[in-house]
Amino acid sequence: MTRLRRDIILSICCVFLILLSGHPAFGWHDRTHLAVAKAAEYDGWYNAAGPDMAKLKFGAAEGTNHWCNNSSGLDVTPSVVLDQAAKYNKASDGEGHLYGAIIASLRAYMKDREGGKYAEYHMAYCAHYIGDLGMPLHNAPFDEFNEARHSAGDDIVELGVLNNIGLIQNNIYPIVIGGEADLAVEIARIANIGRRLALRLREENREMTQDEAYMQLSHSASLLRAVLGYARKAK
Ligand SMILES: [Zn+2]
Q1: What is the span of the domain harbouring residue 219?
Q2: How many domains does one find in the chain?
Q3: Residue 65 above 70 pLDDT?
Q4: Span from the CA of 23 to the centroid of ligand 1 (angstroms)
Q5: CB 78 within 8 A of CB 103
Q6: Distance CA 167, CA 208 (A)
Q7: Using one digit for the tens of pLDDT, what is the confidence trace for 194-213?
Q8: With helix as H, strand as E and coil as C, how does 136-163 read?
Q9: From the CA of 50, how far away is ligand 1's center (Å)?
Q10: Are 187 and 102 in contact (CB under 8 A)?
Q11: How remote is the CA of residue 118 from the centroid of ligand 1, in Å?
């Protein structure tokens, strides 16, 4: 095969994977993910952007863990969250299963830890998905508006966010998680906050403000802090 032919075939494959994965290459940028993890006092904060690197190699198998279209237009419920867990790493799910990915990555962490394995990378995935949960446009259909506004939203606080961890921490609130059922309730609650904000942005045809973004990051950091508190002590 000539190099030109191989390059053309590779390009076609890349376009196909991007189309299949939806929300191509979108998500809070790296420093924003790290800032959420730092605000939650996650000791492995430096790994929190890693799952976006995995999208580069695994395409939709990883990409569909980072968002959920919510194309039904209905509120997210705890049972929707729990049902999505079986779709973790499933490239063929065009709807996206961010909520189930949080549940499934935490299950993987617990399982590997109980088995005496190194489980921290599962927690890094979980921390990243909890960051994505706060991104309103990851909770809404990937329509023309979403595509046009996503990059600006991803970047809205990126430049100064690592110097503004306090702005995230100021609005962290207590969440108590005693088991997976509680976690599903909290994921659904934050998903619906993000979904409603996404609908409002579309209605008003505008980007997220910095204040709105910091508040969304505080929801994520609150949940991550609670998950860490639960997972680190759960046996
Ligand atoms: Zn992501």
Answers
A1: 3-233
A2: 1
A3: yes
A4: 10
A5: no
A6: 16
A7: 999 999 999 999 999 999 99
A8: HHHHCCCCHHHHHHHHHHHHCCCCCHHH
A9: 9
A10: yes
A11: 22
